[in-house]
# Entry
Amino acid sequence: MAETGRLTRSPVFAAHRVMLLRIGLIAAALALWQAVSISGLLFRDVVPSLGAIGGALARLLTDPGFYGHLGTTGIEIGLALVVGGLSGLIVGLALGANRLLGKAFEPYLYYLGPTPKIIFFPVMIMWFGVGPGSKVAMGVISCFFPIALSTAAGMRQIDRVLIRVGRSFRAAAWQMVSKIYLPAMRAPIVNGVRLGLGVAVIGTLLAETKLSNRGVGFLVINSYSTFDMPRMYALLIVVFVIAIGANALVGRLGAGHAYAKF
Amino acid sequence: MNLAGPILVVEDIVKRFDTPDGALTAIDRVSFDVAPGEFLAVIGPSGCGKSTLFNVIGGLLDGYQGRVSVAGETVRGPHAAIGMVFQEESTFPWRTVIENVAFPLEIAGVAKAERLERARHFVALVGLAGFERRYPAELSGGMRQRVSMARTLASEPKILLMDEPFAALDEQTRLLLGDKVLQIQQELKQTTLLITHNITEAVQLSDRILVMTYRPGRVKRVVPIDLPRPRTSEIVSSDAFGHYVAQIWNDLREEATRGMQDAEAHSLRAGAAS
Amino acid sequence: MTRVRRLGTKLAAPALGLVMLVLAITAIQTLIQAGWINRFVVPLPTQVAASFGRVIAEENVLGRFLLTAGETLAAGALLTGVGIRVGVLLYRFRLLRLAFETWIAALASAPLVLMYPLFLVIFGRNAMTLVMIGFVAALPPVILKTIEGLAGTRRVLIDVGRSFNLTEAQQFWKILFPAALPSMFVGIRLGLIFALINIVGVEFLINFGGLGQLINELAERYDLPGTYAAICFVVLVSVCLFAVTGWIERWLRPAD
# Structure
């Protein structure tokens, strides 16, 4: 029931205020940063001036070598998502489709999911060597769980009648999967992939900080050991922007049409 | 009929809403009085503005034309003399039954021991003695609605305003709860305004029935119910009861049909637009 | 169905899971002993099991556990104190929420833990760094869940409050806050788990602290069975935290 009794400000007015608030917060944060930096309250290098960070950012973005590292990390994460995503999808489909399998094995996934995966890194190194293989492996075990669990849950929430429709037309298994299950599960799968992307990024980057000589994670820890703080801040900014952007992109791509559920 | 004058006066209420389809008049010049101790039922088809009327009288809606007054005072917001019982499940799930019922007393600042004692009285009044320490989740839907009612009664309102409180319950439970309501009303001489779409319930419980038209809602007819008091649910099998129900359905059928046709036309338009 | 058959159906699935697990471990054991899997890459399961006792005795596992647990609980306390307050603040001031809720949601998807070298520099190589990492990395979900709980209060409950003419403060403390408690706890649960994950992870990475450091040390010593055992132990701790907080959450929920 619509309610116009309460005094509401127009949405346009709110949008302006929101923009002002956001700009205000950023401006205040930057001003505070610069003030702390100049005052030397904290050990000077911990809070480098905005100019120093800006300069480091510029140097970073114009350094072709950086893009090589970025590419390495990107490929590692990409591969991790493909391997982890596909296996997660398949396992999720299997566990969601068969109640017995689901009840038998899903608890393992459910309880193993929220554990720190980076501790498996020494094992990954032993299995896959000190090169990119172990980083990809870290990404794989990170993103496998959320994708498998979301897929399994997504399978179970499909309206049963849609499955009966498919069976009544005697659709083959692969047709059921591609024409009924997957489209019906679009939202939970996209959610799982977003989560998976997030943890794959973390797993891969952390692995790179531990043992690598290439990749963005390596650059971060390298900045730490050479105490090049402006470069570390610049790297963190770039990583955050890309990670948040990728997450938003996946969300946007996965949104598709909103169709109503009856 | 109390000669001291009506306790609730509803004068020329007009309420419009802005919708994507244009301005909608939900209620169009509705006026009526309620005498002290009277049980008035307002009945109408879906879409007649009953719930809007409920929210207007209860002070939860503004932006309307006309006036609502309680014992001479204009209603400008939720009024202490008006107690509301909502259609939806409204017990506080984190409070026990007794804590739910004591809520208005707690707000009014009554000391703990006293308010629990007073609340106990109302819990017993709705027939839930013994359930004071249970949580709503442990009770049935009908019992939860009784808790909501007891909570409102605990604030000792001059007027009890109820919006289809039994809508979610099955017919038999409704009849039995109707008995309870009759008992309570008898005992407290509680002035009650009941919004409902259920004809049986309206005739069973009330002294007068206002039949509303489909949107824009107006008062189509006022039907005095001349059934004896005190009443019980046995009254539903009497001839007089049947006559009243038939008479009211006659009025309602026309309105309900209009409502259905309107709803179908609307979804046809909505479907064509997408 | 007889009681026995019903029990059988109920246990069938967990039994299957357990049986497969045992089979898998046995298969690994056999393959290693047959030489199909390199025993210097994957130690014998029996060796791993044997090293449990050794590791617990020699490596002060209890002390390490307490240290990690302490760091996690400290982060949890910060999360509760700060996270819920920020969530309440954002809910109360609609404009703030409109402006910043999406930002916080975006931060939830960012690799905040990657800032650990930065925290090392700021706080030094001590437990404070770990607590702050746990706190910062787990903050977004606590804030978001708090807002979600408050905003998700059923309309009719708010109307009940309005019908009794409650003041804004009364409306908040007597209706919105209790109604949002289950959601807030979900947020804190998520926060605790994220905190633990990040704290153990960083302990491992910077080779300082409790359980995470244990794994790193054993790995650097090439104590393979010990490393596997320590990893199992950490997984066990994490599973326990997840399960226990899950029970508490379910125990809080019947109030719905």
Notes: DSSP finds ten helices and no strands in chain C. The mean pLDDT of chain C is 90.
